[in-house]
Amino acid sequence: MPDHHRALIYTMVIVSAADSEMPDAELRVIGDIVGDLPVFRDFDNSELPKVLNDCTELINRENGLEETLKVIKTALPARLRETAYAIACDLVAADGAATQEELRILELIRHCLNIDPLIAAAVERGARARFQTL
């Protein structure tokens, strides 16, 4: 059974892989999030490459996205579901432009995790504000 760390990382990976590639810049953002957020304090950062690889393998299976979303939902306690959505939004906002594929993945995550639409809008706006540039 995957733990909450793995579920949060899987959430970031499916967002990053939404447009069929995982650029180094997005992998760095994932590493920064794992290194900075309190929810990852007890995560062994040396495990990150293995978790990223495990998720990539899962996504690449037949029905991999659906399986990955099920793993995420099952492994996340309810109180971390908004956290998962927030870090997914941060990852999308980090490069300054959201693709249609990324927006679709955010929608799937929002529905899978039963994120209230008003909370989702606030989280999305917060991510946009944090990553805004001139």
Topology:
Blueprint: H1 4-16, H2 24-36, H3 48-59, H4 64-75, H5 81-94, H6 100-112, H7 117-130
Radius of gyration: 14 Å
Low-confidence stretches: none
Distance between the termini: 44 Å
Total helical segments: 7
Strand elements, count: 0
- Chain-averaged pLDDT: 92
Strand/helix succession = HHHHHHH
Helix content: 55-70%
Main sheet makeup: none
Based on secondary structure, the structural category is mainly alpha
Net shape: globular
Strand content: under 5%
Structure description:
The chain is an all-alpha fold. Helices cover 68% and strands 0% of the residues. The protein has helices spanning 4-16, 24-36, 48-59, 64-75, 81-94, 100-112, 117-130. Helix 1 packs antiparallel against helix 4 (64-75). The chain is globular, with a radius of gyration of 14 Å. The model has no long low-confidence stretch (mean pLDDT 92).
